[in-house]
Write a structure and sequence with these properties.
The chain is α+β, with helices and mostly antiparallel strands. Helices cover 51% and strands 19% of the residues. The relative contact order is 0.13.
């Protein structure tokens, strides 16, 4: 019975994503063309004003918001037409280090400490470095934003011999996820962030499942959350 329920849930999620995909494919082209034009004209106008004038900040905000819209469209399209992973033999520890270099600026801005605890003698894994880096960044960014000033995010790598998988765990000491929200966090469009799209974790889960892996989440209110990414060994 439990297995049937899980299959029904997965089928329901696929149907949801299919609808999102159809909408994305239909809208992306129509939205992107005017966005490109608006961005181009804004950049032209920007050069007519004093670079040190008060208008500079307004132009920067407008350009950043246009980029945000474009990123939302990209996430829609990634859900609509997930690309097949381009598998390469990869050192997981090196990949995590590269991803954390990109996350460092956000951590500094939010006054959050990042710590990477490397697993020793990790075997090489077949994976798509760009896709897995995106997943690590998505989850690390969520953790950084959840903890806030004075917070701590710990990233660990190790091998789970029972599962025969490499595990990347991202743990924070933030407020945690309430039990009633936990089953919904991978649903498309579900978010508790003011400017969130609710697509980041959905896309992350899809990427990891495309690699034959899985994501496990544990959380306790007041103590923080831990997202564990499982990737199969060759």
């Amino acid at each position: 019975m439990a297995e049937t329920f899980e299959l029904d849930e997965k089928l329901y999620l696929r149907e949801k994503l299919a609808i999102v995909g159809e909408l994305a494919a239909g809208m992306a082209h129509e939205i992107r063309n005017p966005l490109t034009s608006i961005r181009g004209f804004l950049q032209l106008l920007q050069h007519r004003y004093n670079p040190e004038g008060p208008e500079r900040e307004y132009f920067q905000i407008m350009l950043e918001e246009l980029d945000r819209i474009n990123n939302i469209i990209k996430e829609f399209l990634s859900l609509a037409k997930p690309s097949q992973p381009q598998l390469k033999i990869t050192d997981v520890n090196e990949l995590i280090s590269e991803a954390l270099l990109l996350a460092e600026q956000e951590a500094l801005m939010n006054e959050v400490m990042l710590e990477f605890i490397k697993g020793e003698n990790l075997p090489l894994v077949f994976l798509d470095p760009a896709q897995i880096k995106q997943v690590i960044l998505n989850i690390a960014s969520n953790a950084i934003q959840a903890t806030g000033p004075g917070g701590r995010v710990e990233i660990k790598s190790h091998v789970d011999r029972e599962e025969n998988m490499v595990v990347i765990s991202i743990k924070d000491n933030g407020p945690g996820i309430p039990p009633e929200q936990l089953p919904k966090i991978f649903d498309p469009f579900y978010t508790t962030k003011e400017q969130g799209t609710g697509l980041g974790l959905t896309l992350s889960q899809r990427i990891i499942e495309g690699h034959g892996g899985k994501i496990k989440v544990s959380s306790r209110v007041g103590e923080g959350s831990c997202f564990s990414i499982y990737l199969p060994l060759p």
